[in-house]
Write a structure and sequence with these properties.
By secondary structure, the protein is mainly α. The protein has 20 helices and no strands. The protein starts with a helix and ends in an 11-residue tail after the last helix.
Length: 417
């Protein structure tokens, strides 16, 4: 097939399901690695037309168009090795595009009705993004979320029945929530707050109190990692209020956040009360909610949050017990939480005055990550470990090596609490 024939086939397959179209020029850019990975609907169309069984196989179909006869892929090489269609981090152009997209979503949610077409696909797509958020490097996930949000916004701008409006608005709230969570992982705090507002608008439109509670609870984490602890506690309290008597993920997340914030203030009684509430709520979640996902909450996450809270309280024994349990429960692929747990262990050691061991633990945690994974929040937490050391200890050779490991990923500005 020529590029034009392939584009025409894609557009014919998606006729009536999306108003956006693809042309031969875009397909050419994909073959050259200059165009982002297509969104969920287009991936489906490509898979069907090219007879690909999976996204990975689809990637090979696209990648091999630009692999010369003398540069064939080695056995076991992945599509990411051959044709990276996503950036390693958000550059200025990508961030500007993301801002424009957010404004379009705000407008679409408030002004349009939705169709039932592909609703199951969209709900599964956003659920899958939630699962992958635990293991996918934030910069790559952000690019994929943006691609799907472009297609979702095109759906939102259609003229459709009100029942479909509610379902797609629900998906939009969850997708926007994932975007602001990913932005906070990349330490893009201001933009994370604006996308949190977009998620809140969509959740309010959907009218689902459990969803509204989840969005507000996750928004509380944006304030927490931005250093505004009092606002974080206030927003978390609102999340719990929205949940009411519902045993939902938002209520558990909000209570865990309150515990961590109270611990920073040294409020022992409030910290333990919030942890008790989070644990009680976790015990009442249904099986679909007690999962490793941005949309779920499980014991591994609770023990991580518990360990972080006790770290701030200076209760090293309780912190170490929670951290060890969290590491036992946390999957090896969940690089972010595992790294943050190890950095909490390093923080405990630093507060005890064992600077050498603290830097050794922090260095081991960072070394286990790829350069791409050591960006944003993790780099900021690494910087915080150095700041916890007594000033004379910051000149130790091991500290200098740790700074080198952080390299360009060491961010200037506020370290997270």
């Amino acid at each position: 097939m020529s590029r034009r024939e392939l584009a025409d086939a894609i557009n014919a397959y998606l006729a009536g399901r999306t108003r956006s179209v693809i042309d031969a020029k875009q397909i050419g850019k994909m073959e050259q690695g200059k165009h982002r990975w297509p969104g969920a609907l287009r991936r489906e169309a490509f898979r069907v037309i090219l007879n690909a069984d999976s996204d990975q196989e689809l990637g090979f179909y696209i990648a091999r168009q630009r692999v010369s006869e003398t540069d064939q892929p080695a056995s076991g090489q992945t599509f990411t090795d051959l044709a990276p269609l996503t950036a390693c981090g958000p550059d200025a152009t990508a961030i500007t595009s993301l801002d424009s997209l957010r404004r379009a979503v705000d407008n679409a949610v408030c002004t349009s009705t939705m169709s039932p077409a592909s609703l199951d696909d969209w709900e599964e797509a956003v659920t899958e993004h939630g699962r992958r958020s635990r293991t996918r490097p934030a910069a790559l996930l952000l690019d994929e979320l943006q691609a799907d949000m472009v297609d979702l916004t095109a759906q939102l701008n259609g003229r459709h029945p009100a029942s479909s409006h509610l379902r797609l608005t629900h998906v939009t709230a969850r997708m926007a929530g994932l975007i602001f969570l990913t932005l906070i992982k990349l330490d893009q705090r201001g933009r994370a707050r604006t996308w949190a507002r977009t998620a809140r608008i969509a959740a309010d439109e959907a009218g689902d109190r459990s969803l509204r509670s989840w969005v507000r609870a996750q928004e509380a984490y944006v304030h927490y990692y931005s250093g505004d602890l009092r606002e974080a506690v206030t927003v978390a309290a609102h999340a719990r209020q929205l949940a009411g008597n519902r045993h939902c993920v938002g209520a558990a997340l909000a209570a865990a956040l309150q515990a961590r914030a109270h611990a920073v203030f040294g409020q022992v009684r409030e910290t333990r009360a919030a942890l008790d509430f989070a644990e009680a709520t976790l015990g009442k979640l249904d099986a679909q909610s007690a999962v490793a996902s941005a949309f779920g909450y499980n014991e591994a996450q609770l023990r991580f949050h518990e360990g972080n809270a006790y770290t701030h309280l200076g209760d090293t024994a309780a912190a170490w017990h929670a951290q060890r349990t969290a590491l036992t429960l946390c999957p090896a692929a969940d690089y972010l939480d595992r790294a943050l747990i190890h950095l909490d262990q390093a923080a405990c050691l630093a507060r005890k005055g064992d600077s050498r061991e603290a830097i050794a633990v922090a260095t081991e945690a960072m070394t286990a990550l790829t350069e791409q994974q050591r960006t944003g929040m993790i780099a900021t937490r690494g910087l915080q470990i150095i700041q916890l050391l007594p000033r004379p200890h910051r000149t130790l050779p091991a500290v200098a090596e740790f700074r080198t490991l952080l390299g360009s990923n060491t961010l200037k500005g506020e370290a997270d609490p």
